[in-house]
Amino acid sequence: MQKTVLCILDGLGERAAENGNAVKIAGMPNYFGAISRYPSALINASGTEVGLSSDKDMGNSEVGHNAIGAGRTIEQGLALINNAFADGSIFEGEVWQKLAENAKKTKLNIIMLLSDGKIHSDLNHLFKILGECKKQNVRACIYALADGRDVPPQSIINYIEKTNETIREVGVAAEICVVGGRGKIFMDRYETDISLLKRGFDVCVLGKNCEKTVNFEVAIREQYAAHPNMTDETLEPIKLISSPNIENGDSVLLLNYRGDRAIETCRMFEEGKYISRGDFSRIKDCVFAGVLQYDAETNTPKNFLCSPPVIDGTLTHYLSLNGVRQYSTTETVKFGHLTYFFNGNRTQKIDETLETWNCIETTGVNAKMQSEAIVQSAITAIMSENYDFIKLNLAAPDMVGHTADLNMAIEACKFVDYCLAGLITACEAFGVSLLIVSDHGNIEEMAYENGSPKSSHTTNPVWAVCVSPQPFSLQPKPLGANFGLTNVANTVCAMLGLPQNPKFNPPIFDLKH
Prior knowledge:
The structure is a single chain. It is built from 18 helices and 17 strands. The protein is globular and about 70 Å long. It is of the alpha/beta class. It is about 35% helix and about 15% strand. α3 packs parallel to α14 and α15 packs parallel to α17.
């Protein structure tokens, strides 16, 4: 078996223009040198290739790792939810009926990222819910999480206006009660900062630990004026003075569909996790549901409007069936992507005896992050000769890209390139094959056409590079299509010397015959 490394450069896409392009400005000689010396191809990492609704939909780390791990296109949560809204089945299900019937006696509290970025949520889903609330005479209270990451950095006022306009047009009894940055309340992941859950509870249930206002726009603009470079992600929570709190016995719907930043909120409402026993007594009788089930293995949440995508027979499963010893290494912010999402939305290892996971603590968002430590752990695994397949994720391009700080992004690309040189050298020295890919674009496009900072993902293609001592060559493209992330799994199989999995899409590169 030919030992193989899969290196995922998170959020590093390809774009020809240099304006706002940290990748091109940084130069990245080791990265582009590998692209020029070894078989390489631009592949799709967004839209329908990764199971999203249309080719206008940006890729993201969740669907990207799902697609790489699945080896085929899986209809993702967004597409499933859109279909359920389109045919009305979402409102015919038992869970919605339970939420609505209870809310007629109380109220429906909706927690969501108020955004049309379509990474964690879709504003149109809220509008559909509000329409149904009007039909069923349900009062709705909205707890809006400000984005600023997958959409322009200071755009929450626009989404508040759109929501209020829809409320007026529909004629529904609804109001926005709270606005707070996604980095301040609720949207923690991998228990990196569980204080976000407690603060979310304080703001939305107790009505404290936040600013009070009679006008969201005025309060938000005051924060912008005090901190001109802030993004909506860090907006301090604001509560409308006249608005109610979430009360015990209410209906509560989490309308975000991406699991990594939703699971902890579910556990708070369902188990009292992250808050005190006394605090939990204030919400334990709420009827809680998520728009999707985020983790089927742990049944989180217990109630959900749409069933999640079924992803079985993943690359990890296939490698385990073939006795491949596997090592995964990254830092905290991307650990779930390299394990949970890669393995088909499973929290546990598929094979305890063949999988080893290494998680390095994220200590902050900066140009270096933990890139060097991650690469060094991969090199140590190579040298140990205990593993046949090693995969790593370098988080810096995506995480720094989300800051909209172009200078930091340029430095991040330079440092990732420096680390990549060490990985390429080690693979070449030990005769190990290396496949370099990215899960989606971001850091290559950090400015809009008008020059304003951009912090969101992109629909740009990404490079796949096959660094191998064996004679690999680029395969013919699929009929009428380009290669994409779903072609990576069988590429890994080819590089390992395993038979192709017929369930996976064809490889991008294969041995010359």
